[in-house]
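User: These chains co-purify. Model them together.
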Amino acid sequence: MDQSCEKVLVRGNEAIAMGAIDAGCRLFFGYPITPQNEIPEYLSKHLPPLGGEFIQAESEIASINLLLGASATGSRAMTSSSSPGISLMQEGISYMAGSELPAVIINISRSGPGLGGISASQGDYFQATRGGGHGDYRVLVLAPSTVQEMYELTYLAFDLAEKYRNPVMILGDALLGQMKEPLIRKKPPPMDLPPKDWALTGAKGRKPNRIKSLYLQEGELTEHNWKLYKKYERMKQEEIRFEVIETEDAHLIIVAFGSMARVARSVVEMARREGVKVGLFRPITLFPYPEKPLREISRRVKHFLTVELNTGQMLEDVRLSVERDAEVYFYGKPPGALPTPEEILEQLKKYYGRSGSA
Amino acid sequence: MEIVFKRPECLIDVPFHFCPGCHHGIVHRLVGEAIDYFKIRERTIGVASVGCSVFMYDYFNIDVLEAPHGRASAVASGVKRARKDLIVFTIQGDGDLGAIGIAEGIHTANRGENITLIFANNGIYGMTGGQMAPTTLLGQKTTTSPYGRNFTYDGYPIRMAEMIATLEGSAFVARVAVNNPSNLMKAKQAIRKAFQMQIEGIGFSMVEVLMSCPTNWGLSSLEANRRVEEEMIPYFPLGIFKERKMADYL
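Assistant: Joint model of the two components:
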């Protein structure tokens, strides 16, 4: 093992904070909410000694707007929250998408609707992947499944935010945020990024820079929306990330992301031990959704079981991705207890029988 | 021939879109003069709020960022925390600061953010067509208080300068008017002072400017100026409410 990198046992939330620091983030703005408090707590301790700034804001609305301001200077900045707080931030996220500002937003989601509860849930999938606020925009959404990924994807999020000048969201949940796993704290290789000639640094020796989302002149806003659209299309070309496990000879494939994919992984192992040929498709980018690779697989495999901690949200993207003759089944567990691998295996066998291979 | 009076360098040579008799143009000019006076044009960032002041970027020859409605002081704080070497100011209207953004305004002042806030108080929502504002006077008719503002239903006009001055975090708080040359000269001094406080790192500065809105008040420019004197100033007294000498107050 490379001795230069640290191996530590940390919570998912701390891994996110470490990923942010290693990515050069020196500004954090947030408001307390369970189950993400370890992120602001860690950063309130570790940013000031690095010359950074930590503000516990008066609300998530203030947090996202402090982030908007900091981001406009070209500085790396972040906020984190959980579902109800992320709802409050949607206005600001829409403005940042419209103003083409990079920013990293962490959602260690809890359960809803309303005050809901603090258990793990994937009920924010639609909000995260469909824009979330007003207007025709998207944010890039990364869904980690391990503590290691919470570190790595947070680091990546800062690069992608600057590459596209667009907000990037990390969508985790209570389970991922709170659990401890070993983390190898090693920075990924640097990414080639465009110059930040748009940043507000004072109009010295150049024309003033303007960062805004108001376009009133005839045709301006149409053009602006098409420009944003092209950016989202470019993300679809360049940023698709996913993992496949045992899909080569599978007759049925489970599709799951985040914490649910951890359970699904166990299901695949259990099923394989019984000779049941199933695989796992795990999207890592939720927007852009890995449509093409999933479609490729569906030319061969005709049965898909989508498993989510909700009543069926990613299900829509799976249905939109696969070939029309493929069957997509769903097993959902709204917030409360996580389903056991045995429970999913039992469901899976019902459908596996239909694949003509049992 | 010597030029003794000219357009501030940090204002672009274009006509303002503001209605005839509106005081926004005067306030832009006073802010521009302060920026020129301290020679900080090349390191000043303006934060445009939502309302008639949103078009700040069309008039100021400086870097400008547009904030969501009510959030200008939070946005300005974010800019300043990221780049403490920059001078950051915002112009917020009464709807922006006194209603939708009152939480952000109060907490920005309370944290003592080293920024300058120009509070444009004309007692009405100008850009949306004359609805009742948090600073609309009792009895004043607007499109959403057609019978006149009644405290039983609508509450009382908020005195922002007095409220912000009570916060330990604020360093300089003043209320001025620009309805006559004498008031205008005091306003010029107050705005300059507010920028000076920021430059010297003393802390949060706010200047509330009582402004006219002839269009939505349904008055001529002259009548509107008179209304500032006769109706607004008695309820919103002019003066300096807070002036700290050093950065560390307590």
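The interface with chain B takes residues 27, 29, 53, 55, 57-59, 61-62, 65-73, 75, 77, 91-92, 95, 99, 200-205, 208-214 of chain A (CB under 8 Å).
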